[in-house]
Specification:
The protein is an all-alpha fold and 112 residues long. The protein has 2 domains: 58 residues; 49 residues. Helix content is 89%, strand content 0%. The protein contains 2 helices and no strands. The protein is elongated and about 105 Å long. The model has no long low-confidence stretch (mean pLDDT 86).
């Protein structure tokens, strides 16, 4: 069955209209993917990777001998002074907190 010339023109117009709507929907979907979704996928992947690496580094004894040696050398040779300074600051802070807690306990005992 063949379409009349008018029917053919209507069919072509409907197909072109459908193609335009389909292009618009595809553009919106791609825009949503790139603008709204993709940054989170990349961000989540990097966050998961970073957390995994930190977990592995914090479990130092489980690192294989070669990895532990590389980590140890890289950190200590490049950042030894900063690490020692930070450890000292951490110990001073912990000491101050312990002194404050000790004083709280002494105050509580003296009120009894």
């Amino acid at each position: 069955m063949e379409l009349s010339k008018e029917g053919h023109e209507q069919a072509v117009a409907l197909i072109e209209s459908f193609k335009d709507k389909l292009k618009e929907a595809a553009d919106l979907a791609i825009r949503d993917l790139y603008c709204d979704i993709l940054p989170f996928i990349e961000g989540d992947a990097w966050t998961n990777f970073k957390n995994h690496m930190l977990d592995r580094l914090q479990d130092y004894p489980s690192l294989c001998k070669f990895d532990a040696e590389r980590v140890r050398k890289a950190i200590l040779t490049k950042h030894k002074d900063k690490i020692l300074d930070d450890v000292l600051k951490d110990l001073i802070k912990e000491n101050e907190q312990l002194k404050a807690r000790n004083q709280e306990l002494l105050d509580q005992l003296s009120r009894r």
